[in-house]
Amino acid sequence: MSIFEKIFAASDALQAGKLLQDPAKWKKVQVLSPIFLLIIGAIVRIFGLDIPEPDQATIALGLATLGIFINGYFTVATTDKLGIKKK
Fold it and tell me: Would you say residue 86 has pLDDT above 80?
């Protein structure tokens, strides 16, 4: 499967009545993705990287936003009950 086919399959999963292949595997990714983002944040705090406070807040906001989009995508893409209705 080419990269373009994977991208189209990922976007098709957002349509109502369609879902990603192997939804159980993707549900696990959905559960683990916020944990992964928290670990990244903890590593930054523990090792005290020389990042100014305002930049830390910006990075945290960016990671939180990324996590929200990932969670929302996997919620819709792993069920056939939700999604964008075709016209």
Answer: no
